[in-house]
Design brief:
Length: 342
């Protein structure tokens, strides 16, 4: 990606002519001489100028656009975040374009590049799970394009971010499991390099320490955010000589992958294995037993992210970190004392 998003104004200033002259030269207008056309077009090529297709087609009423890139749009969480972003953006007259990275770093980079080509006014992003190189986001900063991260974040010294209190929420989930009879509590998470995973794992481990429950590292399974990994993790955990009696699952994919595999193994929930998932409470009510969840206020996260982006678009240079609290919704899957009644 280029280091600076070249504008018509940049070209005009370099050549010492008006923006209108540059625009006409790029359109090959007869109103501009051949020598000037060549100078303008050559400089545009050297500076990697990218025309704005929206401004070209709708010069008087160009739409105001922001871009959003998410890892997995089919999950309820990201759909709900996007819903919050769109509601907030619409109230300010903006249009939202969303791109799905499919948890892939290369697709994430391409989405960002596409947004630059579209001349979006700002970007809201959540990292793909395999993104460990943040250079494409550093280039966005160098280009002066406002960007806000949510959920999975990086470069906190450069960009504002909106996160959940995952450490507090995981601590509360573990506390609930301990209070209702669980003692060997496992954690199934995503890649360890994601700050979102680290926060939730920290809260879980902290609760065990506070209750003097020995920490068994074999009960912590972190890897891909996928159904396959969740099922494999359950197989490994339940194959132990001293298996867990409870599981905290990182997100909706991990939660329902683990839930399905536990039942496929002929185990009862919560009698044999209690489970709490970081997922949506409505979806968790559609299975039997109903799953106790730690729920994001996903739509609110979207609205807060959009608010911070608009502040940056208006020139606010402050870097914000906003924390949106999560909520523990207790249902049937977590309380061993109620197992006989299920």
């Amino acid at each position: 990606m280029q280091q600076h998003r070249t504008s018509l104004k940049d070209l005009a200033e370099r050549l010492g002519v008006s923006i209108a002259t540059v625009s006409r030269a790029l359109r090959n207008s007869h109103e501009v001489g051949e020598e000037m056309k060549q100078r303008v077009q050559q400089l545009a090529k050297e500076l990697n100028y990218r025309p704005n297709p929206f401004a070209q087609s709708l010069r008087k009423e160009a739409p105001r656009i922001i871009g959003v890139v998410v890892p997995n749009l089919v999950t309820h969480y990201y759909a709900a975040v996007l819903d919050g972003i769109e509601d907030f953006a619409r109230s300010f007259g903006y249009t939202v374009i969303c791109s799905n990275s499919h948890e892939d770093h290369t697709r994430e980079e391409q989405a960002i590049d596409n947004f630059i080509n579209l001349h979006v006014e700002g970007i809201i992003a959540c990292l793909a799970q395999d993104t460990t190189d943040y250079s494409h986001f550093k280039e966005i900063h160098d280009m002066g394009i406002p960007l806000v991260f949510f959920a999975r974040t990086c470069l906190p010294e450069l960009f504002s971010q909106v996160v959940a209190d995952g450490d507090v929420a995981a601590h509360s989930a573990a506390e609930h499991l301990i209070a209702t009879g669980s003692r060997r509590i496992a954690f199934i998470g995503g890649p360890n390099h994601l700050d979102m995973v680290r926060r939730r794992k920290h809260g879980y481990l902290q609760a065990l320490r506070e209750h003097n429950i020995p920490i068994d590292r074999n009960l912590v399974k972190c890897g891909d955010i996928s159904y396959d990994f969740a099922e494999k993790a359950v197989d490994e955990l339940m194959g132990m000589s001293n298996p867990p009696d409870a599981i905290i699952a990182f997100n909706d994919i991990v939660t329902f992958g683990a839930f399905k595999r536990i039942q496929e193994r002929g185990l009862s929930i919560p009698g044999d294995v209690a489970i709490i998932g970081f997922t949506d409470s409505d979806t968790a009510s559609f299975v039997t037993p109903k799953v106790t969840v730690v729920a994001d206020q996903a739509s609110k996260q979207g609205k807060v992210s959009c608010d911070l982006l608009f502040r940056a678009i208006r020139g606010d240079k402050k870097i914000y970190k906003e924390v949106v609290p999560m909520q523990l919704h207790i249902q049937d899957s977590s309380d061993k004392s109620r197992a006989k009644g299920i």
